[in-house]
Amino acid sequence: MDRGSDGSAMRMVSIVADITERKAAEDHVKFLLSETAHRSKNLMTVISAVAKRTAANSKTLKDFDERFQGRLQAMARSQDLLVRQDWRSVSLKQLISHQLEAFLDTTASRLVVNGEDLDLSPEAAEAIGLALHELATNAVKHGSLASPTGRIDLAWQIKKGETLELVWKESGAAVSPSPTRQGFGHVVLTEMISRAVNGSVEIGYSTGALSWTLQAPLSSITSQRE
Asked: For this protein, what is the EC number (predicted)?
């Protein structure tokens, strides 16, 4: 501000700054910090439960270490994808590729993936990611991935516009019959994921084939965030 000899104002300069982008960036940082804190607490609870259930179903310390480390890595792979998307959603196709690449070449003919891509909610991505890990682990030990001729078909569709049907089907190997002892992997593939997505699961066993079918409301699977 310029003033005359008598102290009165002669000229005034006003500056207006648009801080809309800065405020948006600050709000986004606050959201990420809040979401990280929330997810971290939930993740610690899940890890604790997984550790206890894995220990309860492990015969030796080595067995526990292998199973627990595998499940931790599966959860970490889902978390990696969530972090890349600011905890908002995860592509179903990316989740499948990210989880199964530890077990086989996801571009090879042994894995056939068919379905229109979906944006999963964080909760659905975490649950489905762990289920895919359990299915692949079982396939390596007892199913189609234990044989060079084995194959996995993974397909999904939206039924009546409101229900997701996701089907994992193995073929080309002498898959073990329905197990008499159901460990934590079975809990993950049935109870845990059913609760997480408000859905239902069916598992079928037959000679040379295993099938796992998840059905859940689309509203419980897809991301609702803009």
From this structure: 2.7.13.3
Tokens for 108, please give them.
């090879």
For residues 157 and 155, give the distance between their C-alpha atoms in angstroms, rounded to a whole number.
7
Is residue 181 within 8 Å of 160, Cβ to Cβ? no
- Which of 88, 89, 81, 90 is CA-nearest to residue 32? 88
Domain of residue 110, CATH code: 3.30.565.10
Greater model confidence, 21 or 187: 187
The pLDDT of residue 102 is above 70: yes
Extract the tokens encoding 57: 């179903």
DSSP-derived letter for residue 211 is: E
- The CA-atom distances, in angstroms, between 7 and each of 1, 14, 93 are 11, 19, 71
How does pLDDT run across 28-65, given as a tens digit for each residue?
A: 556 555 655 555 666 666 677 777 777 777 788 887 88
Residue 114: inside a domain, yes or no? yes
Residue 67 forms part of a structural domain:
yes
Nearest to 199 by CA among 131, 117, 115: 131
